[in-house]
Every structure is written in structure tokens, then in C-alpha cells.
UniProtKB/TrEMBL annotation, chain A:
<keyword id="KW-0479">Metal-binding</keyword>
<feature type="domain" description="4Fe-4S ferredoxin-type">
    <location>
        <begin position="329"/>
        <end position="357"/>
    </location>
</feature>
<dbReference type="InterPro" id="IPR017896">
    <property type="entry name" value="4Fe4S_Fe-S-bd"/>
</dbReference>
<feature type="domain" description="4Fe-4S ferredoxin-type">
    <location>
        <begin position="248"/>
        <end position="280"/>
    </location>
</feature>
<dbReference type="InterPro" id="IPR017900">
    <property type="entry name" value="4Fe4S_Fe_S_CS"/>
</dbReference>
<keyword id="KW-0408">Iron</keyword>
<protein>
    <submittedName>
        <fullName>4Fe-4S ferredoxin</fullName>
    </submittedName>
</protein>
<dbReference type="GO" id="GO:0046872">
    <property type="term" value="F:metal ion binding"/>
</dbReference>
<keyword id="KW-0411">Iron-sulfur</keyword>
Automatic annotation (TrEMBL), chain B:
<protein>
    <submittedName>
        <fullName>Oxidoreductase</fullName>
    </submittedName>
</protein>
<dbReference type="InterPro" id="IPR006137">
    <property type="entry name" value="NADH_UbQ_OxRdtase-like_20kDa"/>
</dbReference>
<dbReference type="InterPro" id="IPR051349">
    <property type="entry name" value="Hydrogenase_assoc-protein"/>
</dbReference>
<dbReference type="Pfam" id="PF01058">
    <property type="entry name" value="Oxidored_q6"/>
</dbReference>
<keyword id="KW-0560">Oxidoreductase</keyword>
<dbReference type="InterPro" id="IPR037024">
    <property type="entry name" value="NiFe_Hase_small_N_sf"/>
</dbReference>
<dbReference type="GO" id="GO:0051536">
    <property type="term" value="F:iron-sulfur cluster binding"/>
</dbReference>
<dbReference type="GO" id="GO:0016491">
    <property type="term" value="F:oxidoreductase activity"/>
</dbReference>
<feature type="domain" description="NADH:ubiquinone oxidoreductase-like 20kDa subunit">
    <location>
        <begin position="13"/>
        <end position="149"/>
    </location>
</feature>
Amino acid sequence: MPWILDGLADLHGALRADGYTVIGPTYRDGAIVLAELASADDLPYGWGVTLEPGGYRTRRREDDAAFAHSAGPQSWKPFLHPPRVKLWEGRRTEDGGFSIETEEETPPRYAFLGVRPCDLRAIGVLDHVMIGGAHPDEAYGARRTGAFIIAVNCTEPGETCFCASMGTGPRADTGYDLVLTELIGEGRFLAEVGTGAGAALLDRIPREEADEAVTEGALAEVAAAADRMGREMPEPEGLRDLLAGSLDAARWDDVASRCLTCGNCTMVCPTCFCTTVEDVTDLTGEHAERRQRWDSCFDLDFSHLPGGSVRTSGKSRYRQWLTHKLGTWHDQFGSSGCVGCGRCIVWCPVGIDLTEEVAALREEQEERRD
Amino acid sequence: MPPKLAVWKFASCDGCQLSLLDCEDELLTLAGEVEISHFLEASSMIAPGPYDVSLVEGSISTPADAERIRHIRRVSRRLVTIGACATAGGIQALRNYADTEEYRSVVYAKPEYVATLAGSTPISAHVPVDFELRGCPIDRSQLLEVISAYLAGRRPGIPDHPVCFECKMRGTVCVMVAHGTPCLGPVTHTGCGAICPAYGRGCYGCFGPATRPNLGSLKTWLGSIGMSRPDVDRAFATFNVAAFEEQPDDPP
Ligand code: SF4
Ligand code: SF4
Ligand code: SF4
Ligand code: SF4
């Protein structure tokens, strides 16, 4: 049964009481970032955003909506799959051997407040990569299993959003403990339950039953958002074949003339998972560490083999990103690697838009066919 | 016998050598692992070569420098350049794009006493270099990493990607996308830890060009966000002017 919450202070308080570190959107440095929320007051009430390829600006709204902004500079990835992780450290022992220590860190217990449907799907995609296969990443698993997820349905898609065409939004389907729909202008939220843990949490806070009209009205707003997407991925079902058939496309030269190979797109993408490991020793040589950090197929060293890098041109690196994300991801993980959040479009310093690149590849393919 | 470390200076401001002295917490450990045999900025005591590792600061700008670096190379097993001057010619390489004779006559009272080469060039233009550490100044943890790597006999773990990688890993909001502030991060070699964007400023390119940067595309973009072409060119004409000048304008 759906419920109505008057503000989010009680919800936030209950999560804190349960020992969660509550992470959610907040205003910082001219952007709506994800960070720890000390209280529900930290939410970005009244802030909206204006997005374009290579551009992001916050703007004041006329209402005090908390979630009327679309995807910001980071996804939830840095919390679940941090940019840097120490894997182990080794010390030389007195008998000339060495000992290996792995830190038994208690994983943080995160409550994610305000996960967009696209990002919710992205967490599912990342789960599949990180813990869905034969060699699960246990540290990721620990962070992930402990997380409590409160999704927020979208009523305000941005100029660069295309979740509707990727089939990931604007309404969250599964994977949340609770899902909220903001009743914009009222300061109230429709809350629906996804799991027993979600139900138990709701049981502890003040709430009202939502009547049918309010529920329907709120969900109609969400459904209507599907028609206000700023972008569309052209023919998403055909992407795998399109990319497999476009390895020699002339368009790669065109995009490579603009691409800076800066890796921002892969870093902001909520599903890009690549890492590398680095071994370091200190001055004395008595102490060594193995560290994992994010990597990207735009890094020259990413494809470094004896003899040098395999993908030296920007063209081959951009092609790897797009082909993996939209094409071979299906073969590897059984889904698209793109959920339509639009971050790679906004945070590309030169505004490269993958929906536009796909449209151009498609056009080229059609021309070749004729 | 501990390995011998030497530090040398050419045309430079001493800032990179200071970065070594600035390694306060590690300096004693370092002194325990190597014999600091030649480091005039820190001590007038000089032990004779050959040296296991030579750190070279500064660019080559006089005929005497050009001779001296050849000698240093001969007495050094490994030669590591430290900083933008030694690696790229430094800010003084601006004169490579001007008339040196004219400068000499304007700047010095007795120009005939000033022996100078026509340009300021990096160490690698004169002798083979084993490793180039960039930055104006260098990052001290990168310096310690290179020394630690040589002591352990491994390859230095100095990443070879643009500043944006570090900027994103640090969780900084991109100043170019979110504020419209011009930033050279996408074409600049990493190493500083993306400090400037973390303080709301654009990257000034003080670590020099990333490997195979796409300068043409970034310059076009900087124009589109409101920088005039002379301002764009000036933005690249600083500590690493010669290294940026050498890069082709076409995409990697
Ligand atoms: S590819 Fe771009 S739009 Fe798709 S999920 Fe990644 S960042 Fe979002
Ligand atoms: S697109 Fe590149 S960085 Fe992202 S997962 Fe694929 S190979 Fe890794
Ligand atoms: S597409 Fe954009 S963000 Fe991605 S590497 Fe190229 S320039 Fe950077
Ligand atoms: S602020 Fe500069 S260095 Fe950081 S991501 Fe943006 S362009 Fe790159």
C-alpha cells in the first residue's frame, strides 16, 4: 500500500538511528553532488539544473522540490566501487620472508536516498559485473549487501536524459527497499515499499495512507515524464548489431577529431567498472602495498602489452568505449551497459553526445546498405 | 655501500629541489637508504662520483650547461629529470619563440658578458634520460615513488593519463563543465593530484602535455566557451611552452 510522508526528516532520522550513513543529493560547488546528508535539510530544496553537452548549471526553481534535478556529476558508483582501494600490504619479516595483511575494514552501511531509476538499473548492471560472475569482488559485495536503497521516481527529466528509450525509467521497477515520488510543490512524498526492510522502516515513522487519487496523480506525473526526455537513443534494440557492424565506420574519425581521450565519460558512467592494480614499495623496501584504482579504456596504458599500447589512436579508444558500452556488453553481461543517465554527454569537456554518435553510425550503415 | 644520490641544477628556480627538501617526514629515511653525495642546495659536502641516481633540475641554456650535462650523464647510472624546466625547457623556453639577441641587449647592461644559447632546451635534447618527472614544481610523492622504485629495482608507478582522471577520482566537480572555467586538464599530464580544479580553478598545464593530447579540439572548445584565440594560445605558453608547441594540432 502506498503511503504519504510529510517531509523526509523522519525517514532520515530512522535511517540514522539504524546506523546507516545516509548518502543523497546536496548542493556543493555549483552542482548537485552525492554526499553524506547530516539531516534531511541538506537536500537541495529548490534547486534545478540546466544541462547540455559539455555544460551543467544549477538554477533556482520556483518551488522547493528536493528531487527536481537530474543526474549530477557522480553516480553511486564511487560509494559501491570506490576510485581507490588498498588490496593488501606486505611487510618483510625478521626471518627474511614477508607477511601479507589485508585490512579487515567493516564496510560502511550506506543508505542511498534519492536513487534515480536509471541509476537504480545501473547498480543492477554493476552488481552483475562485480558480484554476478564466477569471481565476485567480495569488498563490493559487502558494501552492496549492506546498502539500503530509497529510489525516487523521476518527474523532471533533464535535457540529456534518455532513460525512457533505454527502458530504465522514469519509474523504478525493482531493486529498491523504498521508492518515493515527490509531490512537487507540496513538500510531501508518496512512498511505496519494495522489500520487507523497507516496510519495517516505514512502520516506524509517521505517515498517512495515500488515497487512490493522490497515488494515481503522482504516478501519472512520472509516466508523463517519459515524454519529456531531452534525448532519445535511436533504435536501442538494434545497438549490438549496429556496433558490431560499424568497426570500420568513417564516423570514428569524426568523433576522434573532437575526443580528448580524457576518460571523463567512463569515470562518470555509473556502470564502467574497469580497474587496474599498482604495486608500490616504500623507501626502505620493507613495506609494499597493492592498490586498485579506477582505470579507463581511454588510458593509453589500459591496452599496454609488451611492445606498447594496442589502442594508441583516439579513434580506437573511443570506439572501444562505445562498442563495449552499447554492443559487446550484451555478449559479456546480457544487457546494455548504458542506462540512459546522460552523464557522459554532460561531463564530456567537449560535449560529445553518444546518442548523436549512434545516430551518425546508423545513418552511415544505412548509406552503406543502399 | 648505499646507492649514491646526486642532485644537479641548471636554469631553474630551485623549486623542484626544494620539493625534495620538503619531504620532511621521509628525508631521514631517505638519508638512511642512500648516500646523498652531491646536493649543493642542502650541503656543501661533495662526494665523488659515479652516482647511482642523478636528479637533474633546470634546462640547458648556456654552452657551459651543455658541456656540464654531458659530464653528469657520464658519471650517472640513472638520470632522472625533475620538473618542467628539465623536462620541457621551462618558462624560460618562451625565448625560443623570440629574438634572443634582442632580449640579451635589452635585459643586460653588459650583454657581451652573457654567454647564452639561442634557446632553452630540456635535458633530453642533450643526453639520454632514464625518467622524466614533470611538474612546476614536481609532486614530492611522485619524486619519492621514483626513488623508491629505483631502490627496489622496479619500474616507477607514475601514471600516464590526463589530469581529468585524477580530478574525477578525487570527486571534484568539473570546473569547465559546471562553471565554464577554462581548464587544460584534459590535455595535461597527471601528477599533481588535480589540485587546481579542487580549489575551483582551471588546470594551468604545469605538468605539460599528456601523451598524445588532442590540443586542436580543446582549443576549439575553449574558443566556444568564450576565450579569444590569443588568450587560448597564451594559456599554453607557460612553464611547458615548448612541449605544448611540439605537439601536433591534429587528433591522436
Ligand atoms: S553511457 Fe553515458 S548515458 Fe549511458 S549510462 Fe553511461 S554515462 Fe549514462
Ligand atoms: S567502456 Fe571502457 S572503461 Fe567502461 S567498462 Fe568498457 S572497457 Fe571499461
Ligand atoms: S568522449 Fe568526451 S569525456 Fe569521453 S574521453 Fe572523449 S572527450 Fe573525454
Ligand atoms: S576540471 Fe579540468 S581536470 Fe577536472 S575533469 Fe574538468 S576539465 Fe578535467
